[in-house]
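thought: fold this chain, then report.
action: predict
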Amino acid sequence: MWRVMIPDWFLLFPILFPLLGGLLFALIAARLPLRARNALPILFLILQIIALLVNIAPGSHRLALADWSAAAFGLGFQMDGITLLLLLAMCVPLLALWLIAPPRRLFDLWGILVLTAAIWLTTAGNTITIYIAWACFDLTIFLWRIARDIEHETAVRGIVIGQLTGLIFLLGSIALAAGQSAQGAVLIGLALWARLGMFPFHYLLPMRGVDVSDLWFARGIPLIAAANLWLHWSIFNADVPYILIGTLAGVALIVYALWVWREETLTRAISVGASQVILFVPLAITFGSEANVALGLWVALAAIFAIALFEIAIRWRAENLNRFPRLIWFAALFAFAGLPLTPAFLGRLGVYVALWESNNGLLMLIAGISTLIVLIPLWGFGFAIRGGELREPHRVEYVGLAIIALAFVALALAPMPIAHALGRQAGAFAERALDLVIRTDDVVGVGLGTAILVLAVIGSFLVQPSAREIYRQWGTLIRNLAGVLDLEWGERFLGTLGYRVSALVRDVSTITEENPTVWLLFVALWVAIFVMIAR
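observation:
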């Protein structure tokens, strides 16, 4: 069979093009008429997608930029079928969103930097490269938030948490290299959990935003990069710490079920819902056995495309177009829930079956109840979605909706052909997923998983009308409990403690500056210590 051999250095096209192409297009835009200038962002993304597709040849592509074997240090990037699909999932929805709502400026420096750093982190091929790209990505997200005046307080929290968890990841990598596999796996698992912005590291990603586009740049793109790290856990050559991940997942599922009830805006509710859905990725990698990568990939893609559909629904809402935004909103809700004919169906059902077969029925039950509770307010937002103006979508907006709809349908109806097209390894993972969910003798596990999927959607729909009355009675308690779990009280305590320590140090330094006797006593103390040591 004839094959096209793609050189590994083709990896540089999608890695370098966003920044270099954005600069070039910014220079060209100043010399073009307005109509042609508005088409440049779409051309930019089309060229980026082409730069990705030149790496579509079967097999993995690896490019080593530097390799110091004596110091066990190297810089390199990789592109296999899974990474390629996730990068396409990063750019194709963005293309649809930009068709519906063009960016205000062609070359938004900070947005281009976020996209570039996300691609670097997604394609990083070893632990050192991951750590460097990790730090750069946190820095670009921080600068992007500051430039767009988004959550200044949590911007600082985010970069601090990101850098600390990056150091935890580095320490875990060092522990693995030293042969301490158990300790290293725990540290890396904790760091990758934080990279997803999961509780209690939820301030790594913005909890809310002031603009609808924050959903994609502040939620969608970071989640794609973090999900790819989980899907490539095999590069660490260590077992996933299932006790740590199972405990964190159980707590986070309960927390998100509480948090979603306090959110009063569309973007905040979507952010909580997306966090609850993407949580199934580490669950799939931890408990999915040989099918873990396929299950996690399907769940991640469903969450990503659901976020894009939610953003389209928000942008399309108008006083005279209530039906279309609602249909789009409910399609995104079904993708979150993992119903049949949605991309997450096999992934979410497979996670439930894997939890049942690994004797984690309690965690399976918590996941199902949490999903039901999270869906209740999303139903309410969908029925109430409405804009305050009269408008008709342009033709190009329908093109954007068609692109996202075609991609959604392809992932929902043809997961196996797509998996086999990604390469032999991805196809093998997909076959193991079918063995777990379809070609299986575990009728009880599959039946319970299917029942949880269906009951979560039907139950949330039936409970939604009476949920308002329940919230009126218990809303104060829920908000107070959600506030305690938000951990802001811990930040205030640490801030107050830090101020007091700094004041104490300042007072001590003032005393030493004004009274030289204190320095004489300090010197005498150290002299006495040395004399005692000598004796």
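thought: worth noting. Residues 57 and 147 are 39 Å apart (CA to CA).
final: tokens above.
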